[in-house]
Amino acid sequence: MNAVEALDGRPGTVSVSTRLEKIGQRAARRPRNLIAGDYVRLEVSDTGRGMTEEVQARVFDPFYSTKFLGRGLGLAAVQGILRSHCGSINIESAPGKGSTFEVLLPCAHVDIRGSENRSVIPTEPMDDDAISNFTMPKYRVA
Fold first, then answer.
1. Cβ count within 10 A of residue 59
2. Do 82 and 138 have their domain in common?
3. Element (H, E) at 2
């Protein structure tokens, strides 16, 4: 919703992508404070108005909003939920350049054979029909 509103009713693009990402020991020590391992990365980008550094510094503050009728709880709640699941959210933005929000969540490791933990990794991307009907993609054991 924020990405669409950032377009201000003008033509533009909102992109959503996902991928698997391996965070190594060095990357895990960055400000994200993530544990090294496999993560699902969700990225939402827009070609909207972008944000100043001042706005970026406050965007996760509870009750902060740049909107006239905004409540300012959405991104604060998202950040809290992600942190409670050992994930993170990061922003790249500049005025007039749009914004990109990157969400990283650790992959679930489930016991699907005996007592060994194995990652469950999609073998094919979900298409629009699968997403709208909440069907699951095919999986392989890694």
1. 22
2. no
3. helix 2-6
In whole angstroms, give the CA distance from residue 84 to residue 87: 7
What is the model's pLDDT at position 73?
76
SS3 label, residue 54: helix
Burial grade of 13 (CB within 10 A; 0-12, 13-18, 19 or more): exposed
Tokens of 97: 């350049």
How many domains are there within the chain?
2
Structural domain for 141, as ranges:
116-142
Q: Decide: 37 and 23 in contact? Cβ < 8 Å.
A: yes
Do 89 and 72 lie in one domain? The reply is: yes
Note the pLDDT of residue 31: 59
Asked whether residue 49 falls in the same domain as residue 74, the answer is: yes
92 has a pLDDT exceeding 80: yes
pTM for the full predicted model: 0.68
